[in-house]
Amino acid sequence: MVRAPADSLPPASRAGLEALRRRFVAGLPARWQEIEQAPDPAARAAALHRLAGAAGSYGYEQLGQAARAAERLCAGGDGPELARALREVGRLLHQAATA
Amino acid sequence: MAELRRVMCVEDDADIRMILEFSLGSVGGYEVLACSGGRAALAQAGSFRPDLVLLDVMMPDLTGPETLAAMRELPEMQGVPVVFITAKAMPEEVEKLLGYGATGVIVKPFDPVSLPQQIRMYWDYGRGPRAG
C-alpha cells in the first residue's frame, strides 16, 4: 500500500487523524487481552483479523502484517509457530503502545 | 446527473469504522453513515438512501455477501454501487466477491488519505453500463 502524505491534509483533518490514532493506540492493550484470552482458535483468529485490518490502516503496517501472519497460523491450532507469531504481535503491539 | 454525496460504511470493528468515517467525511467531504453490522445497515438503508455502500466482508451478525443480497431486495437499494472492503486480497477471493454483484473490492489495510479517491473511482465505474 502506498500512502498519500498526511501532511497534504488541512490542519484540522491532520489533528483529527492524530486523535484517532491515539485512540487506536490506547485500545491496543484491550486488543492484546482479547487475543491472549480468546476461548478458542476461531475467536483468536477473529481478534487477530480485526487487529490486522485496523493496524495497517492507522499506519502500523508491521503490526498489521504480524497479526495477519498469526491469524493464518490459528487454523493449524496451537504450536510453536503460532506461539512465535503471537510473541511478535505482542512485541510490536507493546512497541506501538509505548512509543 | 446524480452526484456522490452519501456513503454508508458497514464495519464491525470500531477503530476501522471510525477511520472510515473520518476518511470519507473529513477528507472526502461525503455525508457518512457508519453502521456496525449488516442488520443495522439494512435497517437504515431506506432512510439514509446511500449513493454508495462500503461493506466489510467478515462480520459477526450478517456477512458482507449476505448483507449485499438482502440490500438487493430493498427497492431503494436497486443499482446502488456496493464496494466490499476486505483483508483477503487473493485474486480468487476478489473474483468471488465481484461475483456477488459488487462494483469493486478495496483491500485492508487502506490509506485514509487516498480512500475517497478510490471510492470516487468506483462510483464512476458503478454508474457505467455494468451498474446494477
Overview of this structure, please?
The complex is a heterodimer of chains A (99) and B (132). The model of chain A has no long low-confidence stretch (mean pLDDT 90). Chain A has 5 helices and no strands. In chain A, helix 2 (28-36) runs antiparallel to helix 3, helix 3 runs antiparallel to helix 4 and helix 4 (61-74) runs antiparallel to helix 5. In chain A, 76% of the residues lie in helices and 0% in strands. Chain A is mostly helical and 99 residues long. Chain B has a 5-stranded parallel sheet, with helices on both faces. In chain B, helix 1 links the parallel strand 1 (6-10) and strand 2. In chain B, helix 2 packs parallel to helix 3. The two termini of chain B are 17 Å apart. The model of chain B has no long low-confidence stretch (mean pLDDT 91). At the A-B interface, helix 1, helix 3 and helix 4 of A face helix 1 of B.
Short description:
The complex is a heterodimer of chains A (99) and B (132). By secondary structure, chain A is mainly α.
Task: Map the helices and strands.
The complex is a heterodimer of chains A (99) and B (132).
Chain A: H1 11-26, H2 28-36, H3 41-57, H4 61-74, H5 80-98
Chain B: E1 6-10, H1 14-27, E2 31-35, H2 38-48, E3 52-56, H3 64-71, E4 82-86, H4 91-99, E5 104-107, H5 115-126
Parallel strand pairs in B: 1-2, 1-3, 3-4, 4-5
Helix pairs in contact in B: 2-3
Please identify the structural class of chain A as seen in this structure.
mainly alpha
Distance between the termini of chain B: 17 Å
The fraction of residues assigned to DSSP E strands of chain B is: 15-25%
Q: What class would the helix/strand composition of chain B place it in?
A: alpha/beta
Largest interface: A-B, 29 and 19 residues
Contiguous helical run count of chain B: 5
Number of strands of chain A: 0
Helical content of chain A (DSSP H or I, runs of 4+): over 70%
Summarize model confidence as the mean pLDDT of chain B. Answer: 91
User: Low-confidence parts of chain A, pLDDT < 50 over ≥5 residues?
Assistant: none
Task: Summarize the amount of helix of chain B as a percent range.
Answer: 40-55%
Number of helices of chain A: 5
